[in-house]
What does this fold into?
Amino acid sequence: MTEFSSPNVEAVGDGLYRLRQLDGDRWISQFALLGPAATLVVDTGLPASPAASLLPFLEAHRRLSPERPLLVLLTHPDSDHCGGTGALLAAAPWAEIHAHARDVPQLGSAARTIASRYLAHAEDGVGPDARAIARLRSRLGGEFRVDRRLEGEVAISFGDGREVTIVELPGHSRGHTGVWLADRRVLIAADAVMGFGIPDLDGGLKFAPQFFSPTAYRATVARVEALAPETLLCAHEPTMTGAAVPAFLADSRDAAAELERLTWAALGTVGAPLGSICEAVQSGYPRPLSCGPADLAMTVAGILEEGIAAGDVDASEERPRRFRRA
It folds into this structure.
C-alpha cells in the first residue's frame, strides 16, 4: 500500500483521519475511518473535495473497490458538507449514502437544498440574491441519492467486534448527526457545536453559531458534555483534546445565550423586520464577524419562533413579518 501523503491529511488515531481543503478564508474537513471490514467517510466537502484529497486517500489505502464496503455519512445539508457527494458517487457508485431522516428532504438536489435551507427566510426579506444562489448551485454539485435514512442512534460494525455509533446532534440542522467512537472517546461533531463561531484563516470569526432552535442547540451542547469526549473533531476548527474540549463547549453555550440576549434586546414594542434584527445582533456580537447579517437569519429566526410559541413575541401576519415583544 502506498501511503497518501498530504500536509492537509491529519492522522487523528488508529485508522481515523481528517482531510482538509481551503474554502476561501476558512478550512473545511471530511473524516475517514478505516475499519477492518468497512470504511466510513463523514461528509464529502465541496464538489472539488473528492478529487482533491478524498479519492486519492481512499485509493492509496485500497478502499476504492466494490468489494470493500464504503459508507458515507452526510452530517447535514450544507454545501461544504454534502456538495462532493455526486463526485464521490461518480468514482465509487457502490458507496452507501447515509443521512438522518429529518435532513433527507434537503439533500440530493441543489434546487431542493437551496429552496428549503438557504431560502428558508426569503419571505421575511432575508436570503441570498441571484448571484449568491448561482454560487450555491455550483457548490452543491450534482444530484445524488440517499440510500439509508437514519433515525435514533445507529451502531455500525467495522469488523473484529469494533463499532461506532451515529448519534443525533440537532440544532445546526434538524437531523444533524455525529459519530461517537466510544472506545477512543472521540466525537466527530462536524458543525453540531460551534464555539463562538466559525474561524477564518486570520484568527477572526466568519460566522456566529447557526441553529434553527436555541433549545435544540443547548440540548446538543449538553449531550456532547455528557459524552465527555477526550477528542472533539469539528469541521472548521483544529482537533481539540483535553481541556480544550470543555472550554469549547462552554463557549458554545455562552455564544448561544449571547445571541438570544441580543435578539431580545433588538425587539421593541413597535415591531422590526427580521433583517433589521439580524443587523442589530451582528453589530452587538462580542466578536467581529466577517459574514453579512443575512447569515444570522436562521439563528435569529429560530430564537424568534420559540418566542412566538411561548407567547413572548408577536409577529405580523403579512410578509415580510415584523416582530415585537408581546
Observations:
- The chain is about 30% helix and 25% strand.
